[in-house]
Write a structure and sequence with these properties.
280 residues; alpha/beta; Rossmann fold; Helicase, Ruva Protein, domain 3; 2 domains; seven-stranded mixed sheet; two-stranded antiparallel ribbon; 11 helices; elongated
């Protein structure tokens, strides 16, 4: 285990609960993350989100061709500066990822994004990254275990939902490793999982309107206990009548009493295009 308590005392630092600061303190686990970062790309350009005290940063900087350590909390600047001073190709940026543009770190080679994300803000960060996916090749991050299960969930399972659809539309998602909560300091209340999101060259499904596709996904998953039709109309109806939506589903050979999690991404895409054509 890294002597995290000693380092925090030395630099007069403390983990801030409001920022979701839980540091992965197990050296083999940190090395596992670094190894996966460079598994198929030994000269990767890496952007680390939430560099913290730099225990992962050093391992990434050692192997990366270019390295950016992004940290929101300015109090961690001195410890990061000390740990990364030997790496001339490394740059420390004190900034919030949600207020940063990925293109500002783009050097002509797509980035590998790594990090131990604060659990409370995982979805906003992933959304922010995938909206700028043209600058990214792979995202390798640690998230809450239950969120990881939702991300990789298959249709027909209770965990399959809006987040599953969004992530799987843009990426190939895999869980690589489970990190028990006792490996972190301070110890969180839940276990974590290391996930890898490989950006797809083309989205998983083709749709006539990506904006409407995600509007439909939001509508059908907003009331998961309801049937597909009732969920859509509980969310505003998308400008359709129930009878019309029922006819569309029957035409696609989707049972009218289906629930959203029973539909595959491909079926949702077909439903999206049918409704889009009808409305336009």
């Amino acid at each position: 285990m890294f002597p995290i308590k000693t380092e925090l005392v030395k630099y007069r630092l403390r983990a801030k609960k409001r920022l979701g600061q839980n540091f992965l303190a197990d050296e083999p686990s940190l090395q596992t993350i670094a190894d996966f970062c460079f598994q198929n790309n030994p000269a990767a350009h890496v952007l680390e989100i939430g560099a913290g005290i730099g225990n992962l940063s050093v391992l990434l900087a050692k192997a990366a061709e270019k390295f950016f350590a992004l940290e929101k909390d300015p109090s961690f600047g001195p410890i990061l500066t000390e740990k990364l001073k030997q790496f001339t190709h490394a740059k420390i940026i004190i900034a919030d990822i949600l207020e940063s543009q990925i293109k500002d770190f783009f050097t002509g080679k797509k980035l590998t994004v790594a990090g131990n994300l604060p659990f409370y803000i995982t979805t906003p960060i992933l959304t922010h990254l995938l909206r700028q996916k043209e600058y990214i090749s792979t995202i390798l991050i640690t998230v809450q275990k239950e969120v990881a299960y939702r991300i990789v969930a298959s249709p027909g399972t209770k965990k399959f939902g809006r987040l599953s659809c969004f992530i799987q539309y843009h990426t190939q998602a895999d869980i690589l490793k489970i990190f028990p909560r006792h490996l972190f300091f301070p110890q969180p209340e839940v276990d974590a999982a290391l996930i890898r999101l490989k950006i797809l060259a083309r989205p998983k499904v083709e749709v006539k309107s990506e904006t409407f596709f995600f509007k439909l996904v939001k509508a059908i998953f907003s009331h998961k206990r309801k049937t597909l039709i009732n969920s859509v109309f509980a969310s505003g109806g998308l400008g359709l009548e129930k009878k019309t939506l029922g006819e569309i589903l029957e035409g696609l050979k989707i049972a009218t009493n289906s629930r959203a999690e029973q539909l595959s991404l491909e079926e949702i895409a077909k439903l999206c295009d049918k409704i889009h054509d009808l409305k336009n």
